[in-house]
Write a structure and sequence with these properties.
The chain is mainly alpha-helical. The protein has 12 helices and 2 strands. A two-stranded antiparallel ribbon has the order 1-2. The protein is globular and about 65 Å long. It starts with a helix and ends in a 34-residue tail after the last helix.
């Protein structure tokens, strides 16, 4: 690793820290966009320069946030939700084995699964920081929601007033959904930044691995079982049920992505392909909850029954458990670290 790579890694970490801190102020929409782009510079350093610059960027960003906020809890949240996933996912994305002509890259489906695990862990960490029991969590969330209603809501045009009893209802719903939403947010941030950094490095010619065929995404064996176990535990209630809800939400999102991949793969060669996919993406924006549920069920069905095996996906396509078929990162059996 050259001194230039070290310097660029430090700069990437500083940029990530600045974006993260900036995401705490300003309009809600700009906060959301900045939050999504927080780890982008770390992923860019990893995919463009290598694993060590990504680790340096992640460490620099975490230390910078600790220095700026003087809050170990904030730095820990950033490390678990942004820095650690970026360092690990870039490491795995560049993991390979074999000779040049038969090189095998880490399957993209496993990258999605690792992002889901980080999402679940972040939900667990947040629950612990917020009180580690349902009553303390409910009290803390009610204070946050009440503060938002009194300070932020009046600044939103057309926002209706919210009474005290409605705050209680919103709090109860938020407590149930918060772990899953937090896990999905971390997954979305990680995978979006990884994808965007991959496209940038691919366009620049610095991406070490070939671009994967994302339509042939497959999740590892056991993903459906892990999802069902987490879902069952989440119905048990209590703080353990809420923690399991974080992993449930993360794997739910993973299966929704798999369902979207199924839609892309089975429509190949169809004259209705463009119309079908446009309708699906439009439905995601208009009826997001219902559409993601349908996609997640499609993905779960594919993971269990493997119905894409019975569809002609084109020359060179191949589908099998625990691998991403087709050209690129999905090709071949899993890498040594996973066998």
């Amino acid at each position: 690793m050259t001194p230039q790579s070290i310097l660029l890694g430090i700069c990437a970490g500083a940029i990530s820290a600045i974006v993260f801190v900036s995401a705490t102020t300003g309009p809600v929409l700009s906060r959301f966009v900045l939050f999504l782009l927080t780890p982008f510079s770390i992923y860019l350093a990893g995919l463009g320069l290598g694993v060590l610059p990504a680790a340096i960027a992640a460490l620099t960003a975490t230390l910078a946030i600790l220095a700026i906020t003087s809050s170990p809890a904030t730095a820990l949240v950033f490390a678990v939700s942004e820095a650690a996933p970026a360092a690990v996912l870039t490491r795995l994305a560049l993991l390979t084995r074999g000779e040049e002509q038969s090189r095998e890259w880490y399957p993209t489906g496993r990258l999605v699964t690792v992002a889901a695990i980080f999402g679940g862990l972040f939900a667990v960490l947040t629950l612990i920081l917020l009180g580690a029991d349902v009553d303390a969590l409910t009290k803390a969330l009610r204070e946050v929601i009440e503060k938002f209603v009194t300070t932020e809501l009046p600044n939103i045009p057309g926002a209706p007033p919210i009474a005290a009893n409605q705050i209680d209802e919103i709090t109860a719903t938020t407590v149930r959904l918060l772990p899953a939403v937090m896990a999905i947010a971390v997954m979305l941030t990680s995978l979006l930044s990884l994808w965007l950094a991959g496209r940038v490095t691919l366009a620049s010619g610095r991406l070490a691995r070939p671009w994967p065929d994302l339509a042939l995404l497959e999740l590892p064996r056991g993903s459906s079982l892990a999802f069902m176990i987490a879902l069952a535990i989440s119905f048990g209630g209590g703080i353990v049920g809420l923690m399991a809800g974080g992993f449930t939400g993360a794997f739910y999102f993973a299966f929704a992505l798999l369902g979207l991949a199924v839609a892309h793969s089975v429509t190949r060669g169809s004259p209705w392909r463009n119309f079908t996919l446009s309708a699906i993406y439009a439905a995601l924006f208009v009826f997001s909850a219902g559409t993601t549920l349908v996609l997640a069920l499609m993905g779960l069905g594919e993971s269990i029954f493997g119905y894409r095996r019975h569809v002609d996906l084109g020359p060179g396509s191949h589908s099998g458990p625990d691998s991403d078929a087709g050209a690129g990162p999905g090709a071949g059996p899993p890498p040594p670290s996973q066998t």
